[in-house]
Amino acid sequence: MARLSAILRLKRLNSLKGIYLRSTTNLPNIPNYRDYHSHDGAQDWWENRRNKRYLLLATGTIAGALLTWATEIGDSSVEAKEKYDSDIENHHKTIRKDLPTYKIEEISEHNNEKTGIWVTYGIGVYDVTDFVPKHPGSDKVMLAAGAAIDPFWHIFQQHNTPEVLTLLESFRIGNLNPEDQVSTKDMGDPWSGEPRRHPILKPAAQKPFNAEPPPSMLIDSFITPNEFFYVRNHLPVPEIDEKTYELEFEVEGVKKVTKMTMKDLKKLPRHTVTAVVMCGGNRRSEMDSVKKVKGLFWGPSAVGNAEWTGVKLCDILNKLGVKSDEVRHVHFEGLDTDPTSTFYAASIPLAKAMDPRGDVLLAYEMNGQPLSKDHGFPVRAIVPGTVGARNVKWLGRVYVSSEESDSHWQQKDYKGFSPSTDWDTVDFSKSPAIQHMPVTSAICYPTPGEKVKVENGHITVKGYAWSGGGCRIVRVDLTCDGGNSWHVAELEQEDLTKAPAGRAWSWTLWTAKIPVPNKAKEVEIWSKAVDSNYNVQPESFENIWNLRGVLSNAYSRVKVKISG
Fold this sequence. Notes:
Number of helices: 15
Mean pLDDT: 84
Helix content: 10-25%
Number of strands: 28
Distance between the termini: 68 Å
């Protein structure tokens, strides 16, 4: 009897082992696996893993089969499970020879329930049409419809488990065309080196490319994912070979020019700073609604918060023997140029660059990854607390001078003026270049016109707040009754130990529950932020209007509909 039991047990183990081995090459053929495409089913599956020996085996899933096998055959099964998990984690990076290949244009056409909802993850193409309606985060899935879900999963880390990746693989229908995995180059076209961007970014301009994510994406994560970070380009994205890249340093009055390669930079002390980069024209569209301005039609999302890693500029300037009492400005010159070979450039005060507490970086990483092409590969300037225009990308030269940069973007742009100044009377020489940005906030949820549900007499409102110059946000006030009553939001900020006084470079995400007037069918929500210097947002755009639409920091106002 014991001998018969042992034989039956061995046969079962071999059978289960076969299921596991077949799973690594043809997941969709697993019996009953698609029965677990709903979120509720999957959740039950995951939560009941402790009953894996019986419950999961009954479902016919490879996870259950493998874990049962692991229970039965002892220590050697642990290695098998580790191999299984590793294989699953790499499925989306592997070509499936049994499936067709699709071009990105074909995939992008499947972005709604009528045409089917396809997404890509790695080099895999997945049809998730049946899955989306049953997923509690279907609104986020639809943002990726016809495009990549990779950046979304950078936020929602609960998806990065073998179980979920296995579930995803069951929806796979093909492979992404290899040519769509890299940029196509045509050296005769100045825009040929442009990288592929995530479709979630809403373009304000195509050439040069400028785009921002939906406001609702900003509040999903304190750190903005690289793929969702707004893009502000003034010229074509340059093609740069890291192997031959050199960054030049020059000091006025000194003949010697110092050149540093990436290897040279990475030998210097490494620093990481969490900081916001905000375009000077952020929220320009709100100012434009008062009176027309000149500039890209930015919403409230031309901003992002990231962890930047690189070399402190003050360390290099000290090595070069720069004295803060001898010169006054540091120029940043980019490698992006127009057809006349004019490059983008800007400058900052030397006092900011030389101050170790100023945290100015020559950054080569963003959120732990090498800079992408759109965000300044291989090196960019990060000037915390300062307008985005001074955070120059694709750095080619750093120049220390007694004079401010004479570039167009320093002298003829990114300056503020009186509301009464127009293009006939403007004199750019009379106004200083923007450096520190003013205090601001923006309502990111709900969005204008959205129908909001009232719970216990309150509605939930979410957004961000930030102030330049290292000032911390100390309060965000909200009202939906025209300012008759104000309600203070709960703040989510960077750890105080990481951002001491005067060095609060990150933004503050906030949430508030505010009471709604009885029987209200529609309300207008206002938000205003207060920083550690007790600067507060102005009430209206009329009194801060300027012809370039910069420094748009009046109250954030969003009208929404109320549902019971």
